[in-house]
Amino acid sequence: MTSLEDEVMRTRAKYEDRRRRVEEEERRKRLEGLISSDDGGSDIDDAFISAAQRKKEKTKRRMLLKSALNMGDNETENALKRKAIAVEKAQVEAKKTLLEKHAQLVQEQPDDHDEQDRREEEQRLLHSVPQGGALFAIAELAQGVTYKESFKTGWRPPGHLRGLASYEIDALRKRKGIVIDGCECPPPIGSFLEMKFPGCFLKALDSRSIIMPTAIQMQGIPVALSGRDMIGIASTGSGKTLAFALPMIMFSLEQETALPFKRGEGPYALCIVPSRELARQIEEVINYFSESAVKQGHPTIKTVLCIGGEPVGQQARAVQNGVHIVVATPGRLGDLLNKKIMNLELCRILVLDEADRMLDMGFEEELKNIFSFFKDQRQTLLYSATMPTKIQQFAKSALVRPIVVNVGRAGAASLNVLQEVEYVRGEDKLTRLLECLQKTPPRVLIFAEKKSDVDMITEYLLLKGVEVASLHGGKDQRERHEGMDAFRRGDKDVLVATDVASKGLDFKEIHHVINFDMPDDIENYVHRIGRTGRSGKRGMATTFLNKKADVSVLMDLRQLLMEAEQELPPFLREMGDDTEVVSTEGGERGCSFCSGLGHRITDCPKLVGIHTKTTQNMARSHAEEGF
Ligand SMILES: Nc1ncnc2c1ncn2[C@@H]1O[C@H](COP(=O)(O)OP(=O)(O)OP(=O)(O)O)[C@@H](O)[C@H]1O
């Protein structure tokens, strides 16, 4: 046996032992009733909770969080150390004279004028970002068409919730961590039954062990069913797909029942997503519920997948046969619309999943083109786990009386993921990767920025006898599909992928996400690690960093780890003090342009990128026009 294999065996034994101890600890806690099996379930109907009960719940949550973070001896030790430092600081403070305290206060106080100047500069910067106009229909803009009223639907919340006072509804939201912005928002609903879904949906949910709605579903589904435009923000793996898919199917069923769709008609609902794999996954969810409805005697809901890499002819025929729901990626959808194979004349519901990512990934022009095909008002639902302030502002201006539903901070990492960060030199990455694979049982997802790195890692792991599949944009559709499927089925233990697999994909039982390198922006990091720790389960993420990582993204990562109460490695700890970066705009945390917590808008690398690009474009067009 080589020394490396020897080392790997030892590491594996170490982790096996650790895992066994963690499992034993979990079992013990469960027995003690610290981990309740209905976490995420609803108890929304009992509006009033006693103070004692609330205290008990708070303690339970704290214990849950502690176990979610998988606190080991080291962490506990560090927490004690932090506490000791805080006590020491407080003692020093107490010994200071009043004069000393005053002098310190004056020193710490920001100069009012400086602060004012900074606020003005930040505002100026925020408004100086060009808004490309995606989400607006050009024809409507040109004709000055604006919609003032939301859609009216026949759906109503159950009577006992309609009768609640607004402070009682606010209390329900508060208990579930739901924050809303927008007028006349329907109340959150704590059960699928009370959302008035047909029995076949309830049965289908039940057979997938989906009993109670998650927080985003409690509020997002009533908003969608009452016809309102919305922006839904909730952490990765929190069930956003059903929050938009169920209303889409329900409305389509209602339409088909009232007046069956003929050849050439439809789609009635359109869902646009950034990757082919995500589109396929959403189509499968929709088909599952549609089929369950058919079994109970409801009409068939036809869903067509319109994605690149597949023959256009087949998709065109399916669309032309009459379609209720289309799930698409922007490129192929634009193609079908431009060639007049599809139209959006009847389309009334528009969903953009991972909306901010699509704009960030440069799909803006495609989206602008697609929006120009809308002939009438539509209900727009935007969803993501990350939604930078600027995109929210812009989206709000394009939607009709939108309601923003927030569960947790936009851009926060899932608290179900234990995040570890390691300093690994470039030349040591592969061997360390092999060791890291032993940290958890399969399945493991490895992310790398470059396609060439994905291929290189895959080859290395194959040589080492690991059952591995890979996925990136350079592969043909058949290879992409086969790799994904093998991993989904569990035939492969490891999937190595670029960011094409980082958004929205829901693989069962991913225990570990390894970032072979740090992505360029913090939002991608949040989406990547969010492939584990889904649906209330726990997972682990390991990120390799070295000198090549961008300082700004490291500062964002540092704050993100602190926010999730994760341990900082020494090299990240040394990068700054533990104070939060607070934007001057309304006390907002971090950058008011992107989701980064580690910098202000004045230091935002993304903004610099946009300004550089705009300046270059202007210079190019001036040159072309002979200036
Ligand atoms: N109410 C629920 N109870 C239990 N499990 C649920 C519930 N709703 C959805 N799930 C399951 O949770 C998993 C994650 O859901 P989903 O893919 O919709 O997350 P998401 O919020 O869209 O995540 P991402 O931000 O990564 O796209 C899925 O396997 C889904 O079946």
TrEMBL record:
Coiled coil: none annotated. It holds the Pfam family Helicase_C. Gene3D superfamilies: P-loop containing nucleotide triphosphate hydrolases (3.40.50.300). Residues 1-45, 104-123 are annotated as: Disordered. Its EC number is 3.6.4.13. It catalyses: ATP + H2O = ADP + phosphate + H(+). Transmembrane segments: none annotated. Keywords: ATP-binding, Helicase, Hydrolase, Metal-binding, Nucleotide-binding, RNA-binding, Zinc, Zinc-finger. Residues 221-405 form the Helicase ATP-binding domain. One of its GO terms (molecular function) is hydrolase activity. Residues 7-32 have a biased composition (Basic and acidic residues). One of its GO terms (cellular component) is nucleus. Residues 429-576 form the Helicase C-terminal domain. Belongs to the DEAD box helicase family. DDX4/VASA subfamily. This is RNA helicase. It comes from Pristionchus fissidentatus. The lineage of its organism: Eukaryota, Metazoa, Ecdysozoa, Nematoda, Chromadorea.
